[in-house]
Design goal:
alpha+beta, two-stranded antiparallel sheet, globular
Length: 380
C-alpha cells in the first residue's frame, strides 16, 4: 500500500529549518533522511509521507501543523528582551529559549489560577519599587522579606544559594532552574544566550535560572532576577556588566548590594592583600559568596577592569564544563526545574483527585506513574 503524501508548504519547511539555525544537510541528518531528499522537499519537487513530515517537524522542534501553513506565524518573544552585548541588543531568541519561557508561563498560569481558587492575596513586594528607587533600599527590603541577614560567614556559598532559593519560595516566588529544554538532554540551554529570566506577577512571580552557567555565577543571577520581581519588571536577562537597559543596571546593582554591601566591600577591598587571587579568595570567605560574586562586585564598583573580570568568568565556566558529569538524580532535577512550591501544589491537587494524574504529569514533566515516587523525593 502506498503511503499518503503530506502536502507541506516548502517555504514553511525552509522557515522551520532557519528557525533552529541548521543548514539543509544538518536538518536532513537530524530528521534521518538523505540530504538530496530533503532538498527536493524544500524546493517543492517532492513531498514527504506523513510519517516523514512528522519526523522532520520533531527534528526541527516545530509544531507539525506549521509545515502546512501558507506563511510563517509571527513569533515574537513573549517577554521583554533585555539582553545586550557591548551595549547593543542581541539577535532574536532561539527556539530553545522561547520554549523554555513558554513552559514557565504555562506553569505560572496554572499556579496563579490555583492560588485564586484558594483565595490567596497579592504578594505585597511584587513591584514595590521602581527603577528610580535606591538599590540599597531594594536590597534591604529583599533581605527583610526573605528574612536573611547580610552574610557574615555563617555558611558556605552553596548553602547560602540553596537557603536563598528556599526563602524565595516561602515568600511566594517560584524558582525554576534547568540547563535543558524540558527533559531533553540533547537540547542544552546556551548560557551565552541568557542567564535567566523573570516573569512578574502579583500572585505567582516566576524566576528562571539557566543551570548551564557556572554554579558560582548562579547566585548573582538569582538575586538579579529577584530584583526584577521587586521592581515589577519581566524580562530575559544575560546579566552582563555594563548593560544599558535601565532595569538591568538596577537589578545588577541590587544583586551586588545584597550579596556584598558597597560600604563594607569598599573598605575591605582597600585593606585586603595586594595579590588579586588571594584578595578575591579572602573576600569570598568573608562574605560567604563565590569568588565570582566578589570579582563581579569589584568590576561593578570600578575596582578592576573588564578584561580581568572576563578572564576570571571564562575560567570558572570552563572548569564547570570540564567536570560536568552525570547530571544528578532525575527527581532532584525535576524538583529544581518545576520549583518545589509549584510541584507540591500540583501533587496535592493530583492526590486529592481534583487534577488528573495525566495532567499533573504534563505540568511536572514526569510520567504519571512516577508521580508518587517524585512526591516522596520532594517530601510532598
Amino acid at each position: 500500500m502506498a503511503h499518503a503524501h503530506a502536502l507541506i508548504n516548502p517555504a514553511m519547511l525552509r522557515w522551520a529549518r532557519g528557525r533552529v539555525g541548521l543548514d539543509a544537510n544538518e536538518a536532513a541528518l537530524a530528521a534521518g533522511v538523505k540530504p538530496e531528499q530533503f532538498q527536493l522537499w524544500e524546493k517543492g519537487d517532492a513531498q514527504p509521507t506523513f510519517r516523514q513530515a512528522q519526523h522532520v517537524a520533531s527534528a526541527l522542534h516545530a509544531p507539525f501543523g506549521y509545515l502546512f501553513l501558507p506563511e510563517a506565524p509571527a513569533e515574537e518573544p513573549t517577554l521583554p528582551d533585555l539582553r545586550t552585548v557591548g551595549g547593543a541588543p542581541v539577535g532574536r531568541p532561539s527556539v530553545n529559549l522561547m520554549e523554555t519561557v513558554q513552559h514557565a508561563m504555562q506553569r505560572q498560569a496554572w499556579f496563579a489560577e490555583y492560588l485564586q481558587e484558594q483565595g490567596a492575596e497579592s504578594l505585597p513586594f511584587v513591584g514595590r519599587f521602581n527603577t528610580n528607587s535606591s538599590v540599597v533600599r531594594i536590597a534591604q527590603d529583599i533581605r527583610d522579606v526573605l528574612d536573611m541577614d547580610v552574610e557574615q560567614g555563617q555558611r558556605n556559598w552553596e548553602t547560602y544559594y540553596r537557603e536563598l532559593i528556599e526563602a524565595s519560595e516561602r515568600a511566594g516566588v517560584l524558582v525554576m532552574r534547568s540547563g535543558i529544554v524540558g527533559n531533553n538532554t540533547h537540547r542544552k540551554l546556551d548560557v551565552g544566550e541568557f542567564r535567566g529570566f523573570a516573569i512578574s506577577h502579583s500572585l505567582a512571580p516566576v524566576i528562571f535560572i539557566n543551570s548551564s552557567d557556572a554554579p558560582s555565577a548562579r547566585l548573582f543571577t538569582l538575586l538579579h532576577e529577584l530584583a526584577h520581581i521587586w521592581i515589577g519588571s519581566s524580562g530575559i536577562s544575560n546579566v552582563v556588566p555594563g548593560s544599558t537597559h535601565r532595569e538591568e543596571v538596577v537589578c545588577n546593582g541590587v544583586a551586588g548590594e545584597f550579596l556584598a554591601p558597597s560600604i563594607v566591600f569598599g573598605e575591605l577591598w582597600a585593606t585586603a592583600t595586594q595579590d588579586l587571587a588571594v584578595r578575591i579568595a579572602e573576600l569570598a570567605q568573608r562574605f560567604h559568596v563565590s569568588r565570582f560574586v566578589i570579582i563581579r562586585r569589584a568590576l561593578d564598583m570600578g575596582l578592576i577592569d573588564h578584561a580581568t573580570y572576563s578572564t576570571f568568568y571564562r575560567a570558572e565556566l570552563d572548569a564547570f564544563r570540564a567536570k560536568e558529569g552525570g547530571g544528578g538524580s532525575f527527581y532532584r532535577n525535576a524538583g529544581a526545574k518545576n520549583s518545589a512550591r509549584f510541584a507540591r501544589a500540583v501533587i496535592a491537587e493530583a492526590f486529592s483527585g481534583r487534577l488528573l494524574l495525566r495532567d499533573a504529569g504534563k505540568l511536572l514533566g514526569v510520567q504519571p506513574s512516577k508521580i508518587r515516587d517524585f512526591a516522596e523525593q520532594l517530601g510532598a
